[in-house]
Amino acid sequence: MTELETELAKESPKKSLTTRLEEEGDVAADYLEGLLDIADLDGDIDIDVENERASLAIAGGALSHLVGDSGEVLDALQELTRLAVQTSLGERSRLMLDIDNFRSKKKAELSELAHKVAEEVKASGEQVKLKPMNAFERKVIHDTIQEIGLTSESEGEEPNRCVVVLPA
Asked: Whole-prediction pTM value?
C-alpha cells in the first residue's frame, strides 16, 4: 500500500482509493460543466484515474483561452476545481486538469528536455540547472530523470523554483 493509500485509508476506511478518486472526478466534472455552461462554451469532459489522482480532460470547441499563453489560466481553473471538490467532499484534492491537450503536449516536450539534459549531465559529469518551472513541469522532469537512472532536486523559492539534474 502506498503512502497516499495508507493516508486515505485512515481518513475514509470504508472507501477504496479508486472509489474516492472517481467521486472526486464526478464532483469536478459537475463543477467544470457548470463553468462551461455559464461561459456558454462547448467541451467534452473525460474523467480518469491515473497516478493515484483524479484526472479530467476537456476537449472540443474553442477552449484555448481557457489555457492561457503558458497555462496560467489552466492552472487557475485547476485550483478552483480542486477547491470546489474540497468544499463538496471535505477532503483535499490533487486532481489534474487538462484542456485541449495542453498538459499532454507539455509533458511530451518536458520529457524530451529531460532526456537531452540527462545526456548532457552523463557526458559532462556536471550538474545542470534548468530554468524556473511550475510544480507540474518540475514533477515531469523529476519523474523522467528518475526513469533514466539519474537524480534531480528542486531548489529556490516560487516562482523561481527550478530543477537541478545531478550526475550519477
From this structure: 0.77
